[in-house]
Amino acid sequence: MLRFYPLLFVLLWSTGFIGAKYGLPFSEPLTFLSIRYALVIALMGAVAVIARAPWPKDARTVVHIGITGLLVHGVYLGGVFTAIKHGLPAGITSLVVGMQPLLTAVGAGWLLRERISRWQWLGLLLGFVGVALVVAGRARLDTVAADTLVHMLWPALAALLGITMGTLYQKRYCPSFDLRTGSIVQFVPTLIVTALLASASESMEVQWSGPFVFALLWLVLVLSLGAISLLNLLIRSGSATHVASLFYLTPPVTALMAWALFDERLSTMAMIGMGIAVTGVWLARRK
């Protein structure tokens, strides 16, 4: 069953941009995420109590798990949602975050002493090329002024650093923990920091429309509970480089979903890029 987890993770994770596209017109990004985190804590807390799930045994482990939550959820999701809200095309956001496997491979060799083979390096580079082709086939950079683009990019760059550092940190300091109580420990500090930032920088007003509620529930149940649990399982069972390589598949899968749901056109270049990205991930995950 474990061998199907990477495919399921990619499918679920790729819906994050779709959920953001549905929900962000009705709420500011940090306010949206604060509501999402609060619901995740409530739902996972009920599950943990009913199942009598074990909590981390010492304060040091709690701190490590909390830091991974701030990086993987707070910095990464906050950056992605803010970038999209500021007008950065989802394709460009995907490309920026798509550099994560390369950064993770460098960090894994340096911090975790993981050996990266020549085939894996080739796979990582092919994956990046494939992602670039997919995005180039969708994005329209010529419609965005250079100074505006720079303003849009910094949240996406912060998201890239957050997901990279979070993956490496978790693999090194807390690779194994109960997914139910561990998720609560991850999301509580993330909610506190995100809510404080939202109250200081946003109006915190929400239009409770049907699309917003649908997007919120989808992101809570499918992404924060489903995909994040799978990510934690994959980090526990595989190398940081293997896990990170899966993120190369997110932009191509997101492009396919956008084509199916929003009738967005897929160019020949984008389809070629998908094939290259899949080949790159296969090479990067070879034993």
Q: Could you walk me through the main structural features you see in this protein, from its secondary elements to its overall organization?
A:
It is a single chain. The protein is an all-alpha fold and 287 residues long. The chain has one domain. Helices cover 78% and strands 0% of the residues. Helix 3 packs across helix 8.
SSE layout:
Blueprint: H1 5-23, H2 29-51, H3 59-85, H4 90-97, H5 100-111, H6 118-136, H7 146-173, H8 179-201, H9 210-237, H10 240-245, H11 250-262, H12 268-284
Helix pairs in contact: 1-9, 1-11, 2-8, 2-9, 3-7, 3-8, 4-6, 5-7, 6-12
State Rg. 18 Å
Helix and strand content put the structural class at mainly alpha
| Main sheet overview | none
Low-pLDDT ranges: none
Let me know the number of strands. Answer: 0
Element-level helix/strand string? HHHHHHHHHHHH
- Determine the strand fraction and express it as a percent band: under 5%
Percentage of helical residues? over 70%
The coarse silhouette is: globular
How many structural domains in the coordinates? 1
Number of continuous helical runs: 12
End-to-end distance: 18 Å
Rounded mean pLDDT score: 80
Concise overview:
The protein is built from 12 helices and no strands. By secondary structure, it is an all-alpha fold. The radius of gyration is 18 Å and the shape is globular.
